[in-house]
């Protein structure tokens, strides 16, 4: 096998959690080239992977919103780039119309996708010459690894390997700060996934007493207002300025601890091997949570609101000094 194309178009957390399939493929087939097709909005994340050989992207989201001629031309150019090579396999681990169209346009006789019941959009089935087996009974992230292994004929082994390398920041995200930094990702795309601001403030005060500096990133004006409400109740905390995706990633990489809801940046923290606590209020941790022994943990069951005590217990689990030897052993194995 010489070249494989992985299609996973959006979004941040899903792409981050799909990246280990590349390390799996390269372990199974030494010397294989693995390319990746994504939406332009998330292509920089794929570029951070040291395992991906070529990143193909197009402004699909932006064109859908604005219908600009420049974006249409960029999509046309990306199709030419997509078809520059012939692939032994195209593996669509997204399963919607736009990913299926990309798979169909790629030059390959073998285009593998989900079975109808597992597709995000049933019409995507037109693009595939073969199908994965039924979706395995596991979390979504391991499921993508299993499906890809079924398509290409190998067995998944070991923990996920993300293999991310961020660009060096122009300056340290926290300047001369000497205290350990804890980032709170309190904002979510949906209101039903939010954890109460009073809970964030209580956890922040406890971390401040333990010697942490709490920082609060945000993406919209509403999120900034909520961050300011939390910061007003947490001594020494800081509401960060508006930041790009890369700047937020670099900030995460400089943190000692990340606590957040089920959002892409918290998945990124996990992939960057940071000590991470993910809080689930409405979604299912068994389907899309994170876990790594003594480093990452998900709390909540998708039906009941996790308590302040639950969060502090989880922070103790990922940030206890006695766990350092086990943590180092696990991450070395990864």
Automatic annotation (TrEMBL):
Q: Hey, which family's this protein in?
A: Belongs to the glycosyltransferase 9 family.
Record keywords: Cell inner membrane, Cell membrane, Glycosyltransferase, Lipopolysaccharide biosynthesis, Membrane, Transferase
Q: Where in the cell is it found?
A: Cell inner membrane
Q: In which pathway does it act?
A: Bacterial outer membrane biogenesis; LPS core biosynthesis
Task: List the catalytic activities from the record.
Answer: an alpha-Kdo-(2->4)-alpha-Kdo-(2->6)-lipid A + ADP-L-glycero-beta-D-manno-heptose = an L-alpha-D-Hep-(1->5)-[alpha-Kdo-(2->4)]-alpha-Kdo-(2->6)-lipid A + ADP + H(+)
Q: What is its EC number?
A: 2.4.99.23
Record protein name field: Lipopolysaccharide heptosyltransferase 1
Q: What class of enzyme is it?
A: transferase
TM spans, by residue? Answer: none
Query: Per its UniProt record, what Gene3D superfamilies does this chain match?
Result: Glycogen Phosphorylase B (3.40.50.2000)
Gene field: waaC
State the annotated membrane topology for this chain. Peripheral membrane protein
